[in-house]
Write a structure and sequence with these properties.
The chain is of the alpha/beta class and 343 residues long. It is 47% helix and 15% strand. It folds into two domains: 203 residues, Spore Coat Polysaccharide Biosynthesis Protein SpsA, Chain A (Alpha-Beta Complex); 127 residues, no CATH class. A seven-stranded mixed sheet has the order 3-2-1-4-9-6-10, sandwiched between helices. The protein has a four-stranded mixed sheet with strand order 5-11-7-8. α11 crosses α13.
Length: 343
């Protein structure tokens, strides 16, 4: 079958929400795609649910052993027939026009296009909307965002297969932040990654059984490694593992910091800002980060809170406190809190 797009879903014991996820893919307005489902040795009724669907676009691959999501994604990339690969998780729901709109975006994008994400809505286990975070769209903001988390919601990603394969696909060493590492390596190789503005094209489900809710300690270790790679490859800095861990802890409050480690981490934050300053687009993302830390940072004492507030106003003016800026900061904070709680 010749097709421009492969929809790639990995499945492991996702029976509870799987049927709804599959239905959302098959109901797409753009219909010329293969639907590649990699079952990672599920032990529940996932395979039976998949086999209920007789749609010829579905190609089910059964792995004999449970390999984990990252190796399963790489297996899917190897098997994908499409020029583009649309990711979706087995517990999420795609808007009917998602593939159509992202395919149109990709065809109109510059030649170095590698990935585009979409706005999304968090939903709970019962499908009720929680909130819709604002997408990170400006190029400098995307790089800044990579210091803390993934700027593209992985289940919404629409990928150019050739570009992803050229940087080695997903790094199998990473189970939780494989997407953050992928975006970093694509940018390092001068590929373009984007987010689409507009209405949400995905519903991303948060529930106790989701991968987001598991492996807190392992996730923290991976996040530090991801931060280290971002600093070294995209910012051109050299940082040792302990300093990267402290920097991560300053931003997330994952663990307490002594005064010396705190000041070193603040210095790293300033260096990152200075590195992006020539782009003239970093002031607002920088200001929002400072406000978040000043108002809610766990590793931020009173004097440091005042310093962060001063810097935010110095570099943005009082409009940093305007309703829109505060609203976007609050949305970002809610997104951050949800991800932290989920881990």
């Amino acid at each position: 079958m010749t097709t421009p797009i492969t929809v790639l879903m990995t499945v492991y014991n996702n029976g509870k929400y799987l049927r709804e996820a599959i239905q959302s893919v098959l109901a797409q307005t753009f219909r010329d795609f293969e639907f590649l489902i990699i079952d990672d040795a599920s032990q529940d009724n996932s395979v039976e649910i998949i086999k209920e669907f007789e749609d010829k676009r579905i190609r089910l691959v059964l792995q004999e052993k449970n390999l984990g999501q990252t190796p399963s994604l790489n297996h899917g990339l190897e098997l994908a027939k499409g020029e583009y690969v649309a990711r979706i998780d087995a517990d999420d729901i795609a808007h009917p026009e998602r593939i159509e709109k992202q395919f149109e975006f990709a065809k109109a994008a510059p030649a170095n296009f590698a990935a585009v994400g979409a706005c999304f809505t968090f939903i709970d286990s019962n499908g009720r909307s929680i909130f819709s975070p604002k997408a990170t769209c400006e190029a400098t903001d995307m790089v800044w965002h990579l210091l803390f988390t993934s700027p593209i919601a992985h289940p919404s990603a629409f990928l150019k297969k050739e570009a992803v394969v050229s940087v080695g696909g997903y790094d199998p060493r990473f189970r939780y932040v494989q997407d953050q590492i992928l975006w970093t390596r694509l940018l390092f190789k001068n590929f373009g990654i984007y987010n689409m503005e507009g209405l949400p094209l995905m519903q991303v489900r948060l529930h106790p059984d989701s991968a987001t809710h598991k492996g807190k300690e392992a996730r923290e270790k991976e996040a530090v490694l991801a931060l280290k790679e971002v600093l070294e490859s995209l910012f051109g800095f050299k940082i040792d593992a302990e300093e990267a861990k402290d920097f991560h802890n300053l931003m997330t409050g994952s663990a307490p910091l002594d005064k010396q480690a705190k000041e070193k981490s603040v210095a790293w934050l300033q260096k990152c800002y200075q590195k992006l300053l020539p782009t003239k687009a970093i002031a607002l993302p920088w200001g929002r980060t400072l406000l978040r830390l000043a108002l809610f940072g766990k590793n931020v004492g009173f004097s440091l809170r005042l310093r962060f507030l001063f810097w935010a106003v110095r570099d943005n003016g009082l409009h940093i406190f305007q309703t829109r800026s505060l609203s976007q900061m609050w949305q970002g904070l809610r997104y951050f809190i949800l991800l932290r709680r989920a881990s």
